[in-house]
Every structure is written in C-alpha cells, then in structure tokens.
Amino acid sequence: MGEDTALLDELRARIRELEDKVEALRISRRVLMNLIDSIEREKREKVLRLEMQNEKLQKNNCRYARAIMYRNVRITQLEDQLRLLTPNKNMSGNAPT
After folding, report:
1. In sequence order, what DSSP letters do the residues of the chain get, joined into one string?
2. In this predicted model, what pLDDT tens digit does every residue of 53-81 receive, in sequence order?
3. Any idea of the CA torsion for 7, 12, 15, 17, to the nearest 10 degrees?
4. Ramachandran class of 96: left when φ > 0, alpha when ψ lies in -120 to 50, beta otherwise
5. From the CB of residue 89, how many other CB atoms can be counted at a distance below 10 Å?
6. Is the pLDDT score of 92 beyond 70?
7. Distance (Å, rounded) from C-alpha 88 to C-alpha 47?
8. Cβ-count burial of 83 within 10 angstroms (0-12 exposed, 13-18 middle, 19+ buried)?
C-alpha cells in the first residue's frame, strides 16, 4: 500500500510538471504568433511604401522622358530652321569642295 501511495504521489508530481510545461509551451506559442503577426504587418507596410515610392519614381521618370522628347523635337525644329535659313553653307562651317 505504501508503494502505491508513493507511486501515486510521484505520478501526480509528474502530471503537474507536464501540465506546467504544456502551459509554458502555450505561452511561447502565443508570443511567437504575436511576433509573426507583427513581422507580417511590418512587411505589408514596407511593401506598400515601396510600391508607392515605385509609382512616384515611375511618374517622375515619365515626366522626365517627356521633357527630353520635347527638347529633342525642339532641337530638330531649330536645326531644320537653321538649314532653311542657310541653304548654301555646309553645316560644319567648311567651304564646299
């Protein structure tokens, strides 16, 4: 009978120990899930910021490309006007051979 009581006490102590470990694991799991949620939220925010920055850069790039195209057209127009005003001269400034 004494052995049974000692075994029973030992098993109860082991059960309490395992229950404590299970509770610690639950807490650890909650902490990890909160960390994952936080990391995912930060990741989404960063992706959103990068997408907005990318869109802004693309708009600026498009605006810059249009400005360059406009200037190239204007240069071509001015060159054409210059050719019309000076039809007998070589564009390089050298006399024709």
Report:
1. -HHHHHHHHHHHHHHHHHHHHHHHHHHHHHHHHHHHHHHHHHHHHHHHHHHHHHHHHHHHHHHHHHHHHHHHHHHHHHHHHHHHH-SSS-TTSPPP-
2. 999 999 999 999 999 999 999 999 999 99
3. -100
4. beta
5. 13
6. no
7. 61
8. exposed
Distance CA 42, CA 50 (A): 12
**Token pair 């024709």 in the structure block, residue:** 96
Give the Cα separation of 93 and 39 in Å (integer). Answer: 68
- Mind listing the pLDDT tens digit for each residue in 37-54? 999 999 999 999 999 999
**What is the Cβ-side half-sphere exposure of residue 42, based on CA atoms within 13 angstroms?**
6
Longest C-alpha distance within the chain, in Å?
129
| 96 in Cβ contact with 90 (< 8 Å) | yes
